[in-house]
Amino acid sequence: MKVEKDVTKTREMVYETKVREVMTGQVITVGPREPMSTLREILRRNRVSGLPVVEDERLVGIISLEDFIKWLADREEDCPIEEKMTRQLVTVHRDDPVVSAVDKFDKTGLGRLPVISREDGRLVGILTKGDVVEGLLRKLEVDYRAEELRRHRASYIFEDIEADGTTLAFQYQVRGHDFERAGESSTRLKRTLRRLGVHPNVARRVAIASYEAEMNQVVFTEGGTIRARVEPNRVFLEAEDDGPGIADVEQALQPGYSTAPDWVRELGFGAGMGLTNIQQCSDQFQIESEPGKGTRLAVSFFTNE
Ligand SMILES: Nc1ncnc2c1ncn2[C@@H]1O[C@H](COP(=O)(O)OP(=O)(O)O)[C@@H](O)[C@H]1O
Ligand SMILES: [Mg+2]
To answer: Ligand 1 center to residue 230 CA distance, Å?
Structure first.
């Protein structure tokens, strides 16, 4: 489950990030009428394996290390670069999402894509796969730092509050049959717990339980509520819905027992392990259900091991 979430995060970033955020803006270029023999020094000095060919700020071609080696091997006479360069160019715009560049890398097998201004066709940058990876890592790092700071600030809350007893309560609404957003509440709850300084292991256990409860509300009900109460020594989790309820709770608790329809199983749910997982990762477990009325799950996790 965790891995899946991480993949989603990366995918989200690939869609949200623009080419201009990750491209290299300082492009080393050559002119079309410069001789092939000058390439040796330019490629070596700049440690690049390909160069855009530019005339009057306009991109007219691309010449690669491979083109240069071929020219060397053929032992031809020196000639202008334009005679050996590639003119069929695959380019991207600086305001394109990174995902479209990734698609082009995949489809063409190319190592670099020139970045063109949409307004006037000028060459404004160059993009390699390395730029994409570096850029995304940089962005992840920024997100991570921001999250760390938030966590640091929130984690003092129990120390700062002065009371004989402190409880923080969080509530999440779950929509039935909404597979698009399934799991969101649990993700948000987990983030909240981590920010509050709840031990990562406990936060993870709560997140697993709340994820399973949330999925059951999505799959089997018209929707419900997930509530969490955080106390200094305990996290209490409650999942409540208005039906249809469970006819035989004993049976539902059996590992592997599931009434999920085939299409739900095809989505990768319905292994019948949800309630079992909740029981296993919690310290106290309680389930009440009445057919036609609804189901209420109440679980506790102790945080001072
Ligand atoms: N909130 C709920 N409302 C109605 N039925 C439920 C609910 N939660 C669980 N069930 C029933 O209990 C069964 C077992 O649940 P679970 O262990 O999570 O397995 P799964 O979700 O994979 O079927 C479900 O197949 C379903 O019949
Ligand atoms: Mg389930």
So the answer is: 26
Residue 128: its H or E element? strand 123-128
- Residue 176: exposed, middle, or buried by beta-carbon count in 10 A (0-12, 13-18, 19+)? middle
Look up residue 268 and give its amino acid: G
pTM of the model: 0.66
Residue with CA closest to ligand 1 atom 23:
258
pLDDT (tens digit per residue) in 42-86: 999 998 888 999 998 899 999 999 999 999 999 989 999 999 999
Distance CA 26, CA 123 (A): 10
Averaged pLDDT, 163-172: 91
CA-nearest residue for atom 11, ligand 1, is 252
Q: All domains of the chain, ordered by start, with CATH?
A: 2-134 (3.10.580.10), 166-302 (3.30.565.10)
Q: How far is the CA of 305 from the centre of ligand 1 (A)?
A: 30
Among protein residues, the one whose CA lies closest to atom 9 of ligand 1 = 216
The closest-lying atom of ligand 1 relative to the alpha carbon of residue 270 is: 22
CA-closest residue to ligand 1 atom 27: 259
CA 212 / ligand 1 centre spacing (Å): 9
What pLDDT, in 10s, does the model give residues 79-117? 999 999 999 999 999 999 999 999 999 999 988 899 999
DSSP single-letter state for residue 41: H
Residue 245 CA: which ligand is closest?
1
Which DSSP string do the residues of 182-219 spell out, in sequence order?
TTHHHHHHHHHHHHTT--HHHHHHHHHHHHHHHHHHHH
